[in-house]
Amino acid sequence: MNWDLIALYKNEDELDLDLEYAKIKACKFEKMYKNRLEYLNSSEFLEAIREYESISQTLGKIMTYAFLKFATNSDNGSFYAKYQEEHANVSEFLLFFELEFNHLNRVKQSEFIENSDGYTFYLQSLKKEKPYQLSSKEERILLKKSTTGGSAFSRLFDEHFSRLKFTYNGKKISEEEILALLHDSSRGVRKKASMAFSRGLKPHQPLLGYIYNMIKTDHKSDCELRKYSSPEQSRHINNKITQASVDALIDTAENSFYLVQDYYTKKAKLLGLEKLYDYDRYAPIEAKEEVYDYEKSKTIVLKAFEKFSPKFASIAKKAFNEGWIDVMPYDGKRGGAFSHPATPDTHPYILLNHTNKRRDLFTLAHELGHAIHQYLSRDVGYIGSDTPLTTSETASVFAEMLVFDYIKDELNEDEKISLYAGKIEDIFATLYRQINFTTFERRVHAHKGELSLATFNKYWLEENKKMFGNSVKLSKNYEMWWSYIPHFIHSSFYCYSYSYGQLLVLALYGLYKSGECEDFIEIYTSFLSAGGSKSPKELIEKFGFNIDDKEFWNIGVDEIKILLKELE
Predict the structure, then answer these.
(1) 337 CB-side CA count, 13 A
(2) For residue 91, is it within any domain?
(3) Is 168 helix (H, G, I), strand (E, B) or coil?
(4) How many domains does the chain have?
């Protein structure tokens, strides 16, 4: 059950032909339009932006293939690096376009924006980036160095972790397999797995700490060069939201940490334990959790999607039948899960590491939600389908809720309690844990100079204790668990997007269940189909919500309270 990359390229020869084609087109594009945008009329500019998008899409397709090869075989690191470098070289020819657009006078910009149907929001967003853009020469230097800066340390992290093994009961197992044991019904197994994971991480702490420090330093340099007001500002600009909106989100989450603490205090009683430790957080309430093998998970997801929208189920069937998904864990494969959007002329690709747990069922639903979103937005083009992280998590978490509601009606009372507990913990992981990650990142990036391992550990424990309070005892070994979180390395300040998406989905799902919005499915499908061609604010307003209103976030918190009450 591996994915089929033929929709991208039949072989590497075809890939290299496309690369040469992209080089020729990009070189021609630069010769034709560099230093000439101000002399174009509206129709000529529209032709230019379409050509720019076409070349960018070809480059995106090339990099998708190279990345997917690397994601399933860490030995392909040099192959991936080769195309990263080629991508950077070709991108140099395109570099002038966005910079030159931002140096046009306001009248010319307005004329182009008004007459660039389908690219309006992209160009408006581009204007907002002007204060942070450098000269063409400086941007070219940064582009040249991009493959040896933060991205090189990101690659090192991935290659290192893909080879890392953890000794459990005398066997060498992967990160995915050891972490899956933290969901075991036996406390002895969970504790032993936690200790084995910590033992496996410990010898690598100096390297992992160094990687994170280099990522932090590289990010700091970028922020200083571009004159961002804070380390997280660039993320907010990319997400098309304001600092005030993010602060309101974080405040709302931190002010409701008591829900996390109350739940885990109750869970200790349900498990018959005097105190929960960090390795007890994911303990199933049932003594024996049902097995959700891949075929069973597929069936459940399809039925849940069909109940909501036949269109959603149809896209999911395409994913299952047409080689979109790489399913099982194996040596050299990247951990975790993702759905890569690829390009509008192909289809998304989903990476899983299915271990037959109930959480794998929800991971499948989550990634298929992403894929449906990515597939629906293909009609707005390569540029328009580039969705901000804040709304890109909407479809994935919504899909999880569909599956949750579908299976809860088929369970007995004990199984239902277990399901509710699992869902609540998933919400906590998506909402509160990601806020926890974000506040940890804030402290790391605010720290002057490099951080020692002791400082990383201190910040990590302190931020976790804010969330758990006295409800969970954090063991000494847990202090180093910051070091395996890939988002800290790959995408600084990415994590609050999950929280944003979770609260947004809870509000949307509450609206859907209430029946107060008769056209909900139609509006929701339109919302997903728009991709990133409109602002999050504009898209969410279609449902009658205002993301700038602090009270909006409390709607999602109220839905969590309802779930907690239903658990009682």
Answers:
(1) 24
(2) yes
(3) strand
(4) 1
User: Cβ distance 528 to 471 under 8 Å?
Assistant: no
The DSSP letter of residue 412 is -
**The length of the chain, given as a count of residues:** 568
For residue 473, give the 3-state DSSP assignment.
strand
- Asked if the structure places residue 279 within a domain, the reply is no
Residue 224: enclosing H or E segment and its boundaries? helix 205-226
| 8 A C-beta contact, residue 291 and residue 356 | yes
Half-sphere exposure of 258 (CA within 13 A, CB side): 4
For 191-229, the pLDDT digits (tens) are 999 999 999 999 999 999 999 999 999 999 999 999 999
Residue 143, domain CATH: 1.20.140.70
Q: Which helix (H) or strand (E) holds 351?
A: strand 349-351
Number of Cβ within a 10 Å radius of residue 365: 25
The reply to whether the predicted model has a pTM over 0.85 is no
Structural tokens at position 331: 């040596």
3-state helix, strand, coil in the chain (%, to 5): 70, 5, 25
d(CA 467, CA 462): 9
Which residue is associated with the tokens 């590497």?
A: 12
Name the token pair of 355: 């271990």
